[in-house]
Design a protein that fits this description.
The protein is of the alpha/beta class. It is 28% helix and 17% strand. A three-stranded parallel beta sheet has the order 1-2-3. Strand 2 (64-71), helix 3 and strand 3 form a beta-alpha-beta unit. The protein is elongated and about 50 Å long. The N and C termini lie far apart (32 Å). The mean pLDDT is 94.
């Protein structure tokens, strides 16, 4: 990165940009249902503050990286969610297949 250029902005998705509270019930109790938890990710409400921060950082020229512990099989759901909610373009980094 060139001196004086804006630094990289790494933004967490779940619980920061998206509101995951509607799907947390899948993780309560002894038997956690991670499949159901992740299956509902596309219906997450937006945290408006997260969108405002992402928009501000992108507007200042910071390259954006969206980071999540979501499995990479959710890449399409996640990129669609980001676009549908007006987030600026950026690189998406998800947990690789088989990574627990």
């Amino acid at each position: 990165m060139a001196e004086g250029s804006p630094g990289l902005a790494v933004l967490d998705i779940d619980g920061t940009l998206s509101d995951t509270r509607h799907r947390l019930h899948h993780l309560r109790g002894r038997r956690r249902d991670w499949g159901a938890f992740f299956a509902a990710a596309g219906q997450d409400p937006l945290h408006p503050e997260g969108l405002a921060v992402a928009t501000e950082l992108a507007g200042r020229g910071h390259p954006i990286v969206y980071l999540s512990g979501r499995p990479e099989r959710l890449a399409r759901v996640t990129t669609t969610w980001l676009a549908d909610n007006g987030f600026p373009p950026g690189e998406l980094q998800l947990r690789p297949h088989g990574d627990r």
